[in-house]
Specification:
This protein is mainly alpha-helical. Helix content is about 85%, strand content about 0%. It is built from 3 helices and no strands. Helix 2 packs antiparallel against helix 3. The chain is rod-shaped.
Length: about 80
């Protein structure tokens, strides 16, 4: 029986699986949040029309695209 040390816990397959799952779950929640931001920006653009509105909409779409792309990247790496 091995002693329960920090090195054994970090090198454990169960711990690594837990960390991978937690990272993916956090990224999925962030992607959902980014998609909600797109909806909120779209409602704001329809309500308050300004010259900056298209820029904000593009930034929201880029944010969501990066979030979804990051999930795909991390899924491939993990």
């Amino acid at each position: 029986m091995t002693a329960l040390t920090f090195d054994n816990i970090v090198n454990s397959a169960i711990f690594l699986l837990f960390v991978k799952g937690a990272v993916l779950l956090i990224l999925i929640f962030y992607a959902i949040f980014a998609l909600l931001i797109i909806r909120q920006v779209d409602l704001m653009v329809k309500t308050l029309i300004t010259p900056v509105s298209p820029v904000l909409k593009v930034l929201a779409i880029v944010n969501a695209t990066v979030a979804i792309g990051l999930i795909i990247l991390v899924w491939g790496v993990l």
